[in-house]
């Protein structure tokens, strides 16, 4: 079962869920929950792998690494379920918030989000161009 180990991955997933809410508030919570579920599904790994906590890799043996990976694996299903619940609750909350807005306000919010995404894309492109010029 996959796991999103970084905050940025979860924030991106949450952003995708919330972005969909602005355009279709009636079924947004359901769609966001489905999207989160699809993101969580993946092929199981054939052997345990993971990421050791910071600095553990420098001090543990191979046997201890395997034990740590097994421990992490045993908790991952619980963590994944809690994350699914959090995403679903946030999607439900955001859908209710969007229901308080008028259609004009929803359009304005969608427009503001689009402008923000455009600026962010432009900044990333400029940063990439700057790095490539070095």
UniProtKB/TrEMBL annotation:
Q: Which domain of life is it from?
A: Bacteria
Note down the stretches annotated as region Disordered: 111-134
Protein name stated in the entry: Low affinity iron permease family protein
Q: What ranges does the record list as Basic and acidic residues composition bias?
A: 114-134
Kindly state which keywords UniProt assigns to this record, in alphabetical order.
Coiled coil, Signal
Q: Which residues form a coiled coil?
A: 72-99
Signal peptide region: 1-28
């Amino acid at each position: 079962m996959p796991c999103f180990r970084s905050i940025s991955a979860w924030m991106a997933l949450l952003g995708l869920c919330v972005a969909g809410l602005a355009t279709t508030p009636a079924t947004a919570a359901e769609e966001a929950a489905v999207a989160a579920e699809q993101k969580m599904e993946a092929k199981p790994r054939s052997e345990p792998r993971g990421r050791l906590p910071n600095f553990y890799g420098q001090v543990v043996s191979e046997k201890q690494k395997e034990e740590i990976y097994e421990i992490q694996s045993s908790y991952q299903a619980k963590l994944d379920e809690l994350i699914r619940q959090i995403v679903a609750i946030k999607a439900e909350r955001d859908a209710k918030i969007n229901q308080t807005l008028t259609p004009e306000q929803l359009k304005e919010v969608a427009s503001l989000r689009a402008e923000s995404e455009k600026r962010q894309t432009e900044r990333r492109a400029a940063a990439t161009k700057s790095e490539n010029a070095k």
